[in-house]
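re: ur question from yesterday

yeah so i grabbed the chain u mentioned. its 331 aa long if i counted rite. heres the sequnce exactly as i have it in my notes:
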Amino acid sequence: MKKPAPAEKTTVPTGAAAKKAAAEPRTAAAKKAAPAKKATKAAKAPVAKTPAKKATAKKVPAGKAPAAKKTPPPAKPDPALVRRARRINRELAEVYPYAHPELDFENAFQLVIATVLSAQTTDLRVNQTTPALFAKYPTPEDLAAANPEEVEEILRPTGFFRAKTKSVIGLSKAIRDDFGGEVPGRLEDLVKLPGVGRKTAFVVLGNAFGRPGITVDTHFGRLVRRWQWTEETDPDKVEAAVGALFPKSDWTMLSHHVIFHGRRICHARKPACGACPIAPLCPAYGEGETDPEKARKLLKYEKGGFPGQRLKPPKAYLDAGGIAAPPLGTG
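ran it thru and got these structure tokens back, copy pasting raw so excuse formatting
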């Protein structure tokens, strides 16, 4: 009979060996638990923002200029909008074949002065005031050397006469000193003159020099938004948006057609929709009076049988039934 195999002897560590063996499980457990504690602390701590890296400009080799960024071309206008806008302009040209600038002038100097004076008043009031001004100061040199108090007295009927006196005298000095006494015929030069912005510059360029320009006054801006040619309100943006719908050769007369229509029929507060010749083309039809009889009573100037704005209007206007405005103090 075989004897059973002897049991394996278990050696119990003693002394330093026992302490080392007891410490090992605790150290292993601590190591396993450590990541969890760090994760908890990291979750509670606020996340530090990583500072953005500074953009570093690429070094350009000596003698080579950096390439300019290409500006994307403006989006082409909707062809349907272009067709409708041009049709409206053609219709207006038939209604106002005599359309013209409604400020009296005989030369570029008179026109630029009259346009500056037309701010915050009517063209009629300016036309009634400028004959005395130009009779006394016919040239830029004359007005540049004028006594401000005497000019103020002449310009009083136009309102804001002190500020306007300062503007026209300063404008005349600039024409005399910087342009040899001649009104410049370039946009970039005109806008350098005191009191002359793009609107005034385009009035002068289009009507004194025959160079195309769009005049964005309050009437023009109101109507092109009503017709949904643009939603812009800034004059420069309106000018760009509307200019894209028409060839340059149309710009000056387009301005006259739209402004004439705004003054006579498509008024700000009470548009005469029932008497409007372009009503079928107008997205805003119905904003004003639609009854034909009531609408006709809202018509102004020659359309309503009343005088226009100019004391000396073009012959075509008079031939079409227009009536000259009365001089200052008579009407």
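noticed a couple things. Residues 16-44 form the longest helix (29 residues). also The chain has 14 helices and no strands.
anyway ttyl
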